[in-house]
Amino acid sequence: MALAGQITKRNMEAWQDINAEPYIQIEGITKSYDDVTPVKDISFSVYKGEFFSLLGRSGCGKTTLLRILAGFEKPTSGKILIDGVDITNLPAYKRPVNMMFQSYALFPHMTVYQNIAFGLKQDKLSKNVIDERVKEMLNLVQLDGYEDRKPDQLSGGQKQRVALARTLAKRPKLILLDEPLTALDKRLREETQFELVNIQEKVGITFILVTHDQEEAMTMSTRMAIMEEGKIRQIGVPHDVYEFPNSRYVAKFIGSINLFDGIVIEQETDHVLIETHEMECRCQATHTGVLPLGSNITLAIRPEKIMISTTKPEYQYNWAKGVIQEIAYLGDVSIYYIELASGKMVMATLPNLLRLAERNFQWEDTVYLFWRSENSSVLTS
Description:
Blueprint: E1 24-33, E2 36-46, E3 51-55, H1 62-70, E4 77-82, E5 85-86, E6 97-100, H2 112-122, H3 127-140, H4 156-169, E7 174-178, H5 186-203, E8 206-211, H6 214-220, E9 223-228, E10 231-236, H7 238-243, H8 248-253, E11 258-267, E12 271-275, E13 283-286, E14 296-301, E15 307-309, E16 319-329, E17 333-340, E18 345-351, E19 366-370, E20 376-379
Parallel strand pairs: 3-8, 3-9, 6-7, 7-8
Antiparallel strand pairs: 1-2, 1-4, 4-5, 9-10, 11-12, 11-14, 12-13, 14-20, 15-19, 16-17, 16-19, 17-18
Helix pairs in contact: 2-3, 2-4, 3-4
């Protein structure tokens, strides 16, 4: 099923500007515990005002990396710079960083006002400054009038906003978000994603989000890093990571994908011709890199890029014949599972433009699948 698209927010991408200076620099960070190394020589940069996401399965090292950024863990090697200042050995309370925890960690005996003001009081700011800052935060997260309530009088979404307001109140240079929307139901989670993006855009503070939720990262991120086994596999804007994965792992992790093993039998300037035993037809795919003839590759095609017909397409390449074995109805779309003659099962996603009773394709129908050359990717790793 296709994932939600990236929210377009900025006209200028700092990471594409050769003159832009990174705001956060992670250089060669490694963390080892005896014989376990959850973070392995990670390096990347984040630019000021970005909403950057670390995305990966449980155990991939993303939370350990976040805790290192927060100062709760000390790296075995490497360094971290924020705005040009090396903070690697600074304790958490001295870093210009605030972290919003998955559990929100609100003080149950304190009011909303007191929760938001807690860090400001720790910094010994004047009562007037604290009062002004708390009112500013309440307005920002749309909780005016809730200042005297206790956490147990709030909904999950309201607690999340209080936690965010408390995190923003100290005006840090970097905010770290550890799975902040996990406790919310699906509808509220989707609404809160947009609220978070809008708030982050208003305050202009750099955010780094840790999540295992692909749609969450795709929706909110300016860029995202896909992690696996303590390493970063790919960094890019959501559109590029989805449309142009650099490996089988990334292709399978982000959204749904059809993968076919094949070999390169012809190389041209802008495309390659591929032969695969899983289809009777040869496949042509857009590709500008150099691939020697005979190279083993993987052809990747997203389900929504595949079209279905009951008649054979007039294509020389990029088609296959099969039988519909399963149909998954998801409301706005249906997913068709088509078995090819080779036994390969292919997924194709079509929007439900017609009512269910008027659907063009049914179980056990023999159909043809076809796709455009530019809608497939060639993976070499």
